[in-house]
Amino acid sequence: MSEAVPVTERVWTTGVAPGIFPFFGHAIALLSRPLDFLESLPARGDVVEVRLGPRRAWMVCHPDLVHQVLKDPRTFDKGGPLYDRLRGLMGDGLVTCPHDDHRRQRRLLQPAFTPARVSALTRLMGEEAASVCRSWRPGRRVDVTAAMVALTTGVTSRLLFSGSLDAGRAAAVRACLAVVVRGLFVRTVVPVDALFRLPTPGNRRYRSAVRRLHGLVDTLIAERRRGAPRDDLLGTLLTAAGGGDGADTGPLTEREVRDQLVTLLLTGVESTAMCLASVFALLADHPEAERTLHEELDAVLADGSVPGPGELARLARTRDVVTETLRLRPPGWLFTRLTTRETELAGCRLPRGATVLYSPYLLHHRDTAFPEPDRFRPERWLPGGEAAGAGRAMLPFAAGSRKCIGDTFAMTEAVAAVAVIARHWRLRAPAGPLGRPRPAATLGPRTLVLVGEPRTRPAEGGPASAPPHGRNERQARHAHPPRQGASQDIPLTGPQDAAPKAPRTGPTTAGDDV
């Protein structure tokens, strides 16, 4: 039965986005200035018609209407250009499967993401964070994006494969994901299949990366079948494939096992890595927020050890930094749904098969929900703070029955990683503000390079001097074009069944549903 959401009675407004180009529609604006384009839409109405190539679509700009869409998955099912392209990569895994199969798949995977299971992995997450910065040297440049992808690949592989993803395969996975993520965005906003069947270098790289990723996962599955059982997610899936899961989920096919693993690899690695890279980019531009974070870490992790569940619960300001990053730069920034029947939304009659879009980035930058939305202000998430009443607008993990299954896992991973790295290192921009990145399939800095400075506790000589106070996102964007630290080709959405934990004052916080 569909879940109805009461919507405040009001007169909804509708409109059409400006700047339609023949054949391409609004795809040019989405490709050339995607975030500015999104931020311009609420002024046009609560529901705004846009064109994705020749296809009409409707962007939902008001948080109450977005909740109405997300909590009626029978009417607004997974579909549209984004999921059409994702299915070529993930098949019908948890993120992309239709509504009718979602409950079965979610019940199968849920045990891997229980609070007790996630809590037991806290120290492991911290150890992975410590390992990625072990080779850093004072005053040397650090490829922060690569380090965060290595970190999240390590954590995700432990969850999925008990660490059997060796260094060579982990590097291959990272390389494949980098190509795939770049290719997904343009395939979403320009939904003209003929363009992507052309034998261009970019199309060949994308298809090759997809084939290689599938091949790597197939090899891991085959090796596990020949080896001893393990208590990890792959083991759970193989048990279900044999019909022995003990739950009313039905047996999995071989293809479904691979689809689930590819889905969780993409979402578990990419989305959290982009969130972490964004955290350190923003801290480099905002020394006051960094100083407050360091004070908490010096108090809670006084001996410099990795946090366990007890310490993690005391890192409130660290969690606020991650939550504010997810608000300002949600890795999953644009999603689509497809109507399964003719319906009405905000007075608009939508035909069956209509594409409906929503953007966490757009919602998170509404000044009616978040004053000074372009500013990085972790203090807004303090208990009783200004964000206390903005919960419905905070949607990095979606809502409803298809809300990200891994939100607690991702949030725990992000807080533990930030705590371990920032306790021991300050990461400084080589010169000037970093600006904000451009999105691709996810939003985050794809080529962030910072300079590492070891930290000392105040009693041991005080923290290193901080750079000048950073500016807000819009000022930095227009005054300083993005450089090496801000990617020019960043991605559009990651799934939502495996993301971070909700902020204390809102529903949840980086993906659509993994």
Q: Can you walk me through this structure?
A:
It is a single chain. The chain has 514 residues and is of the alpha+beta class. Helix content is 46%, strand content 9%. It has 19 helices and 11 strands. It has a 6-stranded mixed beta sheet. A 3-stranded antiparallel beta sheet has the order 5-11-10. A hairpin with a 2-residue loop joins strand 7 (343-345) and strand 8. Helix 11 (201-226) packs across helix 13 (254-285) and helix 12 (233-241) runs antiparallel to helix 13. The chain is globular. The two termini are 22 Å apart. Mean pLDDT is 85; it is low at 458-470 and 478-511. Its cofactor is heme. Residues 453-514 are annotated as: Disordered. Keywords: Heme, Iron, Metal-binding.
**Cα-based radius of gyration, to the nearest Å:** 22 Å
Number of DSSP-assigned strands: 11
Question: Could you give the order of strands across the largest sheet?
Answer: 1-2-3-9-6-4
Order of helices and strands: EHHEEHEHHHHEHHHHHHHHHEEEEHHEEH
Mean pLDDT: 85
Distance between the termini: 22 Å
